[in-house]
Amino acid sequence: MATAIKKPLTAAQFKKKVLQHLNFTSSQTDYQQDPTAVLRAVCLTVNEVVYEKLTETNQYHKEHKSRSINYLSLEYLMGRMLSNNLHNLDLFDVAQKAVANLGFEIEDIFEEGHDLALGNGGLGRLAACFLDSLATMDFNAVGYGIHYEHGLFKQQFHQGRQIETPDEWREYGNPWEVCRPEAVQNIPLFGHVETIANTDGSVKKVWHSGQTIKGVPWDVPIVGYNSKTVNVLRLWESRASSHFDWEQFNSGDYQDAHSAQNHAETISKVLYPNDETDAGKELRFIQQYFFCACSVKDIIKRYSQQHGNDWSQFADKVAIQLNDTHPTIAILELMRTLIDEYDFAWLDAFAMCRKVFAYTNHTLLPEALEKWSVDLFNKVLPRHLELLFSINEYFLNEEVSKMWPGNDQMRRRLSLIEEGETQMVRMAHLCVVTSFKVNGVAQIHSDLVKSDLFPEFDQLYPEKLTNVTNGVTPRRWLKACNPELSKLLDSKVKVDWAKDLSSLSSVAKFADDEKFQQKFMAIKHNNKIKLAEEILASTGVEVSPDAIFDVQIKRLHEYKRQHLSFMHILALYRRLLADPDYDMHPRVYIFGAKAAPGYYLAKEIIYAINKVADKVNNDDRIKGKLKVVFMPNYRVTLAEKIIPAADVSEQISTAGKEASGTGNMKLALNGAVTIGTLDGANVEIAEEVGDDNIFIFGNTVDDIKALEANGYNPYDYYNNDEEIKACLDWLHTDYFTPGKPGELSAIAHSLLDGGDPYRLLADFADYAKANIALDKAYKDKARWARMAIINTAKMGKFTSDRSIQDYVDNIWKLTPMSSQG
Ligand code: Z2T
C-alpha cells in the first residue's frame, strides 16, 4: 500500500487541532466551561486521522479486489468510542496531554460521551468485539446494522422498580458517524406479484410493490488497533422516499404526506428490547426486511463497482454472516434479486446463496427461535414468500425425501413451514438449509446444536454444523478499561499482549511471586475504591473495598438465574441474623441488569433484589458483612467500570441454557474468579485456568436431563432443605416490604407451583457449598492472588482475534491486507 510515512501527532499539534475545531468548526471560544464542546473537538481531531486511514483502506481493497466479509446484525453494542479510538490509534497519551493542557482531565471528557447502545446484550456486544478484531487483523469487513433513533432504553429505579425511558444517543448529533447520500437505497414492500407468460412457455414474476421506503446509510468508522485498517459499520435509517412525499405534498395533502413520512421513519425508530424472546411484531418484521434489503443491495452495488455485470466471482468475493436469524430475509432478498433482476435460473440463484451465507446460532431457548406467520410474509413480501415455498419444495423433495424416503414425519419436522392453526415460517430452518456453515458460539453449545436442536440437519449436511467459541476484544476489555493492570502486564510481557493475548500466559510464572501478587492485588483494590465511589454516587450505598466484590452483570433472565444468587443472599442474611459472628468475609453483591419491559418475572426479580438490598444494607445487626447493590442502567460504559473491580464473577445459568457468555471472559481477564456452572464458555474457561482456579458447582447438562427424566419436582427440595424452605417462605411475609406482605411472592411461586423451569432449587445446595469454599479461598490472601493472576494469564484463548481467526480459517476464507502484497 502506498502509505506516506506519517509522523505521529505531538501533544502540541493535537492541542492546536482541538483549538482549531473549537474555533472554526463549532465557534466555541468559552470551552473552559464546556467539556462537551471539548469532547466534540477532540473527536473531530481524531476523525482527521481516522478518515485518512479509511480512504487508504478503501483504496487498497479496491486495487486488490479483496474478498470481503459482510457481517449482518440487527444489534451492535459499541459503547463509547473516543477512548477506544485513541488507544487503537496510539494517540491516547498525546490526547491526554493535549487535553490536560486545555485544563481538562481526559477521563472527564470521556464521561461526556454517549454510549452507542444499539443492542440488547451479548449478541450485540459480540458484534462490536468482532468489528474491532476484523479491523485490527486487517480484514476487509463491513458491518451492517440499523441506525435506530433510540437504542436500548435507559433504566432507572423508582422505589425499587425498573422504569424505562428512551435512549437519546444522538439527540445532539454523533461525531462518529457520517451520512452517505451517495449510497441511499430504495426499498419496495407490500403489493402483489404478477405472473407473466414468456413465449417459450416459462413464466416471469414481477413484484408490483405497494410502497417504497428510502434507506439512508450512516457510516461509523471502525479503527483497528495498531493496524493499517479503518473499516466501517454502515447503519441504515428509514425515511419516506422523496418522490412519494412530494407528490402528496404538492397536491395539497400536507397532513398525509407527513403521516406517510412518520410511518416510514417508524421502521428504524427503536431497537426491540427483547434479548431472547421473539415478540412477533409486524413492525419488527418490516425492520428486519428493510435492513436486509438495504444491506444486500449495498453489497451487490459494491461488488458491481468492481466486477460490473460479471457474477461469476460473486461467491469468491462476498461472504455474508448472519448474526442469529434476525437477518435471515437477506437470503430471500439475494435470491429474489438474482432471479427477478439478473435473470438467474432458480437453481443457479439457490446455489449462489448457498455459497455466500453462513449463520451463527446464539441460543437453544425455544422462545427465541424466530417464526413469522405466512400471512404476514404474504402481506409484506409476497414475492419473497413464493421463493421461500420454492426453496422448501426443493429441500423436501430433493434432499429430505431422498435421505429418508417415505418418511412424512421427517418432512413435517424439517419443513421450513410449521403446519398448524396458522402456518409459520421457521427462520432457523431456512438459515440451516441455505447456509454453507452454521456455527454455535461455544463448544458445549455447538455440541447441543448438533445433538438436540438440529440432529437431522447434522445427518443431512455433515460438516455444515460447527463451532466458533466467542471472544472479547482485549483492547476495550483490558487495555482501555483497566489501565493500571495493563501497565503491570506491560512491565512483564515484552510483546504487545493486546494483539497477542496468549502471550499473557508467561505471567503465570509470577502467580506465586509475593511482590507481583501485592502489585496485582493493589491494583484490584484501587479499582474497587473507584467503583465504591461510583456505587455511592449512583445508589447511595456505602461499600468497603476490603469486602469481596461479587459481580453479576448481564441481562435479567430466569435462565441466567440472578434469583439463585438472590436466594443465596437471603440464606446468608438468615445465617447472619441467627449468628452475628457467622464466619464469612464481608461480601458486596453487585448486580447490573436490564429486564425486557414486558418480562414480568424479570422485573419482579429486580424489585425483590432492590427490596432485600434496602433491608440488608441498613441492618446494623449484621455489622456490614453483607451488602447488596443493584447499579442502575447497566451498559457497556458501566461494565467498563465494574469489571476491573470484580473479585468474583457469577456465571450461574442452568447448564445447557447459556450459549456462551462473554462477560465471563471479560471478568476473568481482569482477574475475577468465576463461580459457575458447566455451561457455555465456562466449560472452556475451566479448561484454561484449571479446576483449582475456578469454582464449578451444580448439575451438568446430563444431570439436568436425568433429573427431568425422573420428573422434576421442586417441592422435593423445599421439603427436604430447611434453608430453602425458610427463604422461600420469607418472601411471602412483609419482612422486606413492610406493611405489604406478598410483594415478593412471584419468585417463590415460580420456583414452586411454577415448576422451577430453570432448576434453581436443584443447584441451590451445591451453590451454597461452593460459596463456602470461595469464602475460605478469599481469606487466604496469597491463594486468592494466585487464582486471580492465573485467571488473567490464562485468558488468551478468549480474545476475539482468535474467534475471528477461526471464522476466517473455517468459514470465511479471507486473506488479510498485509498478506495480499
Ligand atoms: C443474545 O444476547 C444472545 C443470544 C440471543 O439469542 C439473543 C441475544 Cl440478544 C437469540 C447471547 C447469548 O445468550 C449468550 O450466551 C452469548 O454469549 C451471546 O449471545 C453471544 O453469542
Summarize the structure.
It is an enzyme of class 2 (transferase). It comes from Thalassotalea psychrophila. This protein has 33 helices and 25 strands.
**How many helices in DSSP terms?**
33
Are there runs of 5+ residues with pLDDT below 50, and where? 1-5
| Straight-line N-to-C gap | 8 Å
Mean pLDDT: 96
Radius of gyration from the CA trace? 27 Å
CATH architecture call of the largest domain = 3-Layer(aba) Sandwich
**How many domain modules?**
3
Helical content stands at 40-55%
Specify the structural class: alpha/beta
Say how many strands there are. 25
The small-molecule ligands in this entry are: ligand Z2T
What's the CATH class label of the largest domain? Alpha Beta
Strand content: 5-15%
Shape: globular
What is the fold named in CATH at topology level of the largest domain? Rossmann fold
Any idea what the CATH superfamily of the largest domain is called? Glycogen Phosphorylase B
Describe this structure in words.
With 821 residues, the chain is an alpha/beta fold. The protein folds into 3 domains: 1-64 and 81-114, no CATH class; 69-80 and 117-470, Rossmann fold (3-Layer(aba) Sandwich), CATH 3.40.50.2000; 474-804, Rossmann fold (3-Layer(aba) Sandwich). Helix content is 48%, strand content 15%. The chain is built from 33 helices and 25 strands. Strands 1, 4, 7, 8, 11, 12, 13, 14, 18 and 19 form a 10-stranded mixed sheet that branches. A 6-stranded parallel sheet has the order 22-21-20-23-24-25, sandwiched between helices. It has a 3-stranded antiparallel sheet with strand order 15-17-16. Helix 3 (82-88) packs across helix 19, helix 21 crosses helix 32 and helix 28 packs across helix 29. It is globular, with a radius of gyration of 27 Å. Ligand Z2T binds next to helix 6. Ligand Z2T binds at residues 120-123, 126, 275-276, 324, 362-363, 368, 441, 470, 658-662, 680.
